[in-house]
Design a protein that fits this description.
heterodimer, A: alpha+beta, Ubiquitin-like (UB roll), DNA polymerase, domain 1, 2 domains, five-stranded mixed beta sheet, 5 helices, B: alpha+beta, Aldehyde Oxidoreductase, domain 4, seven-stranded mixed beta sheet, 21 helices, 23% strand
């Protein structure tokens, strides 16, 4: 397939990876960005959500070469500098995580939905957040505090 | 802001998780990393006639293909069960042998017969597919009732009739007499649906063998790394304990499924020795559905008798429990001492008798899953109460109220001695929070919109804080269930707490630190909690059974007592005062009523410089404690669920869910409420969505998230939570444990609400739209036709 070039968390990346390499494997195994998780093998759980050119994508369902030339942002690159993104802050303040495994995907999905709703001028209320979280499974929190976290972050983003 | 007991302290552990810096087992990679893939049976039951490894071995990048004959040939022991149950005729239980890799017979879909070790996960998987196994399929049985039928396929030759044990509890003659004298007898037949625990982090293991030291290291997704080391050493002959380090780093949820020591961990350790490589295995989700221990899977017939005033006279229960193909580590305790002992619920029942037949089937082993036995007991009791109330024309809440236990301690007819509780107060609290007074109006309003609104109660009790070691031992447990702690005050005054509990979402790094901050008034940032590594923590029993609070924290409290006692001696000596006059407040030790004081770091330094200690005192400031509870703890609760059913579609919407809990003392309400949210959601999942399905031939039909319906954010409501508190008298904090309550109490509240809405008890879990719609049509053809 030749050299794959893309940007990950603002850094230019160039790697020679086989054509069948999934984006999530590129991130986890080749770039050792292990914050993006794999919780299932059918694109259901959302633990692997990253942003590709500003849109939420399940990294387990995308070939790495399919995002050549794109800007990829993972949980490790979400915040500017050493601080926390408002969504990360909100998850801490609202106890939006327990075991933490689904959390990177939840945060990346949360940021995406807030940005989409703001761009469309739509109100991201509780039913909308619950509907938008259809593609992210959490087994610990019962979603209650994830919903609160996203609501709280939306007010600050 | 306080960081002591009772404060809503934000979690210390969050930062690494929210920034993607958590360190889970699959995130770890060693220099000489190789990868394992298992060759698994596609048959529920088959004889293994031969394994042809040649094609796989010839593939480039394949390091080894290993099978069960090699494993047993190297002396790796069979997988054990940790709790011996005696049948009611006095005979011991029958256990079929379980090798980590099957040799001559496979007994469930997913049973592993060989493992491929290769240079990459993809290569290992491809090579595993190239291993040709000659199977001769045998007749299989997947359902527990069918397994007991005469002529059923035999899962193990040495388990006649597939009956592992036939256990009893209580007094049969007394229960029969109580039923005979009853004015009304309610009879129920109830299934408790089989569930897959589904921690979102799949199981994973990395094994390392250091040839020079003949030492092994295992990174694993475990709730109890010390128990894993003990069992791997004592029974599986992998390595002696001092030559085996088990590390459970960040673990992404457990819910019971990560208690057990599975074939994969054993095989990885053995394969690391065989190949001289670090061997890593991570389950795919489909593999998790096939191989993680499942939960529940009971079929029960029961009769409850009532006198003319609605007081319970007797309860008689016959349960068949599916243990799956092999008997897993705590599989025998779950449907017996964690189920039969709970059959009194919150009620004063004068006569109880229960039997449990545990059976093998050609399905993956069933073991403890969040609640473990107590959800099954609670669902049975609480459904029976509602059905009885409808039959007798009584209000379900009032039927509960008149049967509540009201004085403590209370000795049940099924072994347990409840220490404390206030069940009427919880019912009142829940009714107020749920505005039950306004229910009739809401029901009428819903009816005007064409919806059927129903309300359901669940008043439940748990036995948590597992467990008093002597009691557990007398009932057949192979281990003591105490917990250990060590508190190390460093020379600069920072504190490390080592605990044998393990946090895989429970927030121990925060809540355990709150105990120290509360005791000495030192900043919570100066306290670290160390857990999950057998090289750091000497021993411990891990986290399950809502035990980290009542048992693990109690051990910390005892160790803190010892540290405090030594601090008082040091300070009294240095300040020439009486120990009794020393006050420890806000990170200082003062002589009461004076300005003489030592800062916390000065005390640490004094202990370690040892320049001026009392004559008989050893230097240092480090104390350990083991805490063995004298009794279980008994959290209780009242859940009220309100649903709206759409009669057109059978879709149930949970419109209100109230939890009134009594967890005793609460260390961090934010964390406790989070546990309730998660537990209730798993309970709603069981009630409405989840079920593992094996077909008649033992094929697993629910092998992915496409087929097994997990609760998602829009399946559940926002919860209202209230706390009552009757402290447990049996531990220093008065704490009862909160991890399992939601999963235990929620299913009957939901199903009772649906039954109330549709006017029939002819409904089972999971109450899918199709089932609800059909039940509605069977019961109320006229309404359904409108």
């Amino acid at each position: 397939m030749g050299q794959l070039k893309l940007s990950v968390n603002g850094r230019a990346v160039s790697r020679d990876v086989p054509g069948e390499t999934l984006l999530v494997d590129l991130l986890r195994e080749h770039l050792r960005l292990t914050g993006t998780h794999v919780g299932c093998d059918t694109g259901q759980c959302g633990a692997c959500v990253v942003h590709v050119d500003g849109r939420a994508v399940k990294a387990c369902n995308v070939l790495a070469h399919a995002v050549a030339g794109s800007q990829v942002t993972t949980i490790e690159g979400l915040a500017d500098g050493g601080g926390l993104h408002p969504m990360q802050q909100a998850f801490n303040e609202n106890h939006g995580l327990q075991c933490g495994f689904c959390t990177p995907g939840m945060i990346m999905s949360g940021v995406d939905m807030v940005q989409r709703y703001k761009a469309a001028g739509r109100d991201l209320d509780e039913p909308a957040i619950r509907h938008e979280l259809e593609g992210n499974i959490c087994r610990c929190t019962g979603y209650e505090n994830i919903v609160k976290s996203i609501q709280s972050a939306a007010a600050r983003m | 802001m306080s960081t002591g007991i009772g404060a809503r302290v934000r979690r210390k552990e969050d930062r690494r998780f929210i920034t993607g810096k958590g360190r889970y087992t699959d995130d770890i990679r060693n220099d000489n990393q190789a990868y394992a893939a298992f060759v698994r049976s596609p048959h529920a039951h088959a004889a293994v006639k031969g394994i042809d490894k040649a094609a796989a071995e010839a593939m480039e990048g394949v390091i080894a293909v290993l099978d069960g004959h090699q494993l047993t040939g190297d002396g790796i022991g069979n997988i054990i069960t940790g709790w011996a149950i005696t049948s009611r005729d006095g005979s011991p239980m029958n256990i079929g042998a379980w090798s980590a890799l099957a040799t001559d017979r496979v007994r469930y879909v997913g049973d592993a017969v060989a493992v491929v070790i290769a240079e990459s996960p993809a290569l290992a998987r491809t090579a595993a597919e190239a291993v040709a196994v000659d199977y001769e399929p045998l007749a299989a049985v997947a359902q527990p009732v069918a397994a007991l039928a005469s002529g059923a396929p035999q899962v193990h030759d040495n388990v006649p009739g597939n009956l592992v044990f036939d256990w009893e509890i209580g007094d049969e003659a007394r229960a029969d007499a109580g039923l005979a004298a009853a004015a009304h007898v309610t009879e129920v037949e109830i299934s408790n649906n089989r569930l897959a625990p589904n921690a979102i982090e799949p199981r994973s293991a990395i094994a390392i063998h250091d040839e020079a030291e003949d030492h092994y290291t295992l990174y694993t997704t475990s709730q109890n790394p010390h128990v894993a080391r003990l069992v791997l050493s004592a029974f599986y002959n992998v390595a002696p304990e001092h030559k085996l380090r088990v590390i459970a780093p960040d673990v992404g949820g457990g819910f019971g499924s990560k208690i057990y020591i599975y074939p994969e961990e054993i095989t990885c350790l053995w394969a690391a020795m065989k190949t001289g490589r670090s061997v890593k295995w991570t389950a795919e989700r489909s593999e998790a559905f096939m191989t993680d221990a499942h939960g529940r899977d009971h079929v029960t017939r029961a009769r409850m008798g009532f006198d003319k005033n609605g007081r319970i006279t007797a309860f008689k229960v016959d349960t068949i429990a599916n243990l799956g193909a092999y008997v897993s580590l705590f599989a025998t305790a779950t449907p017996t001492y964690l189920y039969g002992t709970l059959l009194s619920g919150q009620y004063d029942i004068p006569a109880i008798y229960g039997t449990v037949k545990a059976v093998n089937t050609n399905t993956v082993p069933v073991d403890a899953y969040r609640g473990a036995g107590r959800p099954e007991a609670t669902y049975l009791i609480e459904r029976t109460m509602d059905i009885a109330a409808r039959e007798m024309g009584m209000d379900p809440a009032e039927l509960r109220r008149i049967n509540f236990i009201k004085a403590f301690p209370y000795q049940t007819q099924v072994l347990l001695n409840y220490d404390s509780g206030d069940f009427p107060a919880l019912l009142d609290m829940a009714q107020k929070a749920a505005d039950t007074a306004g229910f009739a109006q809401r029901k009428a309003e819903a009816a005007a919109r064409g919806k059927l609104r129903g309300i359901g109660y669940s008043t439940f009790i748990e036995a948590c804080g597992l467990a008093p070691s002597a009691a557990a031992g007398s009932l057949g447990a192979g281990v003591g269930l105490w917990e250990s702690a060590e508190v190390r005050v460093n020379p600069v005054g920072t504190v490390e707490v080592l605990t044998g509990c393990h946090s895989h979402g429970q927030s121990h790094e925060t809540t355990f630190a709150q105990l120290v901050s509360d005791r000495f008034g030192i900043p919570i940032e100066n306290i670290s909690i160390v857990h999950g590594d057998t090289d750091k923590v000497q021993f411990g029993m891990g986290t399950y059974g809502s035990r980290s609070g009542p048992v693990g924290m109690s051990a910390v409290m005892r160790a803190l007592d010892k540290v405090e006692a030594k601090v008082r001696k040091i300070v009294a000596h240095q300040l020439e005062a009486s120990e009794d006059d020393i006050e420890i407040v806000a990170g200082e030790a003062r002589v009461a009523g004076t300005d003489r004081k030592m800062a916390w770091h000065e005390i640490g330094l004094a202990a370690y410089t040892a320049h001026n200690l009392p004559a008989d005192m050893e230097p240092g400031l480090k104390e350990g404690a083991f805490f063995d509870p004298v009794n279980f703890s008994f959290p209780s609760g009242c859940f009220i669920c309100e649903v709206e059913v759409d009669p057109e579609t059978g879709v149930t919407e949970i419109v209100r869910f109230v939890s009134a809990d009594d967890f005793g003392t609460i260390i961090n309400p934010m964390v406790v409420e989070g546990q309730v949210h998660g537990g209730v959601t798993q309970g709603i999942g069981q009630a409405l969505l989840e079920q593992v399905v094996y077909d008649e031939s033992g094929q697993l039909l629910t092998g992915s998230y496409m087929d097994y319906c997990m609760p998602r954010a829009d399946d559940v409501p926002s919860y209202a939570i209230a706390h009552g508190c009757t402290p447990s008298p049996n531990n220093p904090l008065g704490i009862k444990g909160c991890g399992e309550a939601g999963a235990i109490g929620a299913p009957p509240a939901v199903i009772n609400a649906i039954a109330d809405a549709i006017g029939t008890d002819d409904i089972s879990m999971p109450a899918t739209p199709q089932k609800v719609w059909e039940a509605l049509h069977r019961a109320r053809p006229a309404v359904a036709a409108e």
